Amino acid sequence: MKIYDWPTGPYPARVRIALAEKNLRSQVQFVLVDLYKGEHKKPEFLAKNYSGTLPVLELDDGTFIGECTAITEYLDALDGAPTLTGRTPREKGVIHMMSKRAELELLDPISVYFHHATPGLGPHVEIYQNPEWGFRQRDKALRGMHYFDGILKSQPFVTGEAFTMADITVIGGLIFAGLLKVPVPEECEALSAWYARMQERPSVKNRITMSEPAKASG
User: Fold this and answer.
1) How far, in Å, CA of 98 to CA of 109, rounded?
2) 32-78, pLDDT tens digit by residue?
3) Whether residue 185 has a cis bond before it, omega within 30° of 0
4) pTM for the whole thing?
5) How far apart are CA 212 and CA 22, in angstroms?
6) Pick from 107, 35, 106: which is nearest to 68 by CA?
7) Residue 65, strand partner residues
8) DSSP assignment string, 64-87
9) In whole angstroms, what separates CA 102 from the centre of its chain?
């Protein structure tokens, strides 16, 4: 399998963490796509992923799978023992709900802030910017942090007692926020403590280099 990504990207981080949690690093080859050169918007890449976003998984039969949730779903099912996307209908429903909330309320708003209210990927990529919209989305992301802080006050992980795709999505949002110097509000103590703990997981700590096998921990 091949994964087209940008090593430090927050969205690629989601798939890299999933790969490490599933101990699948040895089964993939990473292919660099330079975001700052706009390679993800060029015809050669758009032929692989119409939306022009990273990451993309290429299977050995030539199938391309885009979208972090879809890629994680595929990787999680490979061994027949899903740990990230749920085993039971209830687990699957809750995990997907919370992962989508993490996208809508945290990760995607931070992305909009990046592309509209900062230099983003530069003038050759950022053809249109609306700073007011970007700052509004930054504020939405901060509200999202408060929401997840409330969730994590009463349980160790985003969906309860186990690390799942939903946790990975929130981690992606906080990685992005950190890159943009958007701190977790001081009053969000539960979220801050959770994130500090998540950063000690080998899958998160080694996500850029993918240099060591990273086994799931509690």
Assistant:
1) 16
2) 999 999 999 999 999 999 999 999 999 999 999 999 999 999 999 99
3) no
4) 0.93
5) 13
6) 107
7) 57
8) EEESHHHHHHHHHHTTS--SSS-S
9) 10
